[in-house]
Amino acid sequence: MGILFMLLYFLIVALVIEISVIAFMLTGLEKEVARYQAVSMLTSTGFTTDESQLILDHPVRRRISMFLILFGAFSLAVIISAITNILSDDLRLNKLIMINGVLLVIFIAGKTPMTKKWLQHRFDYEMKKNLDLSELPIKEALFLNKDDIVTDISVEEHSHLCGLRVTQMTEQSRDINLLFIQRGEVNIRKELSEETIQAGDKLYLYGDKHEIEKLAKENESEKPH
To answer: Which GO terms describe its biological process (predicted)?
Structure first.
């Protein structure tokens, strides 16, 4: 009876994970990322900083993650208790079977196109209601291709970039966009094309990784005298 109890409860955990994966996918996460994050939150392990921003910056995903974290803590207590009482007859198997049945129905319903469409509509509504522009995950907003990155470059005193106008640096042949220049305590965003790059500037860039790497090498090379 104890082994059956454990198997039924692990089935509940598996169904909760799969239902959460469906919910995460409906908010735009890829399946592999969604499953990894669901397992990570449920077990409180491996919740990576990079991908965790995709969860923390999204109001709907935050709610799903809170449920998974609480369910994971509750599950740990239940499993420890079950192991302690493994020989006990009072394991309430009928209730566990009912819970498995309900979760199985929810899981199957969540896979249907009609339910997915309804949930997606609800999630979109929650996004419009709760998500401020400042909360938009930068990875989802800007990383459109696998080679896209957002990074910064500090301009050295003898850098080849010193004295260049921004339009010269981000010429049309380059897939690079300058988001803003940090000059001391001032962030320059307006009329960037009119700016001339100075030593000590920190350039915040978005674009193709390989093009930005080339630009970084130019920054390291000394300006000819």
So the answer is: potassium ion transport
More confident residue, 204 or 82: 204
Give the pLDDT confidence score for residue 87 in this predicted structure: 45
Centre a 10 Å sphere on the Cβ of residue 91 and count the other Cβ atoms it contains. 20
User: Would you kindly state where each structural domain of the chain is located, as residue ranges?
Assistant: 2-135, 143-220
Provide the CA 66 distance to its chain's centre, in angstroms.
Answer: 15
Task: Give the list of residues 6+ apart from residue 103 with CB closer than 8 angstroms, or none.
Answer: 12, 15, 16, 19
Backbone phi, psi, residue 89, to 5°: -85, -15
Q: Which residues of 177-204 are buried (b: 16+ CB within 10 A; e: fewer)?
A: ebebbebeeeeeeeebeebebeeebebb
pLDDT at 181: 92
Write the CB contacts of 224 (distance below 8 Å, at least 6 apart in sequence). Answer: none
The topology under which CATH files domain 143-220 is Alpha-Beta Plaits (3.30.70)
Please tell me the pTM assigned to this model: 0.44
Give me 196's structure tokens.
């001339």
Region 19-27: what's the mean pLDDT? Answer: 86
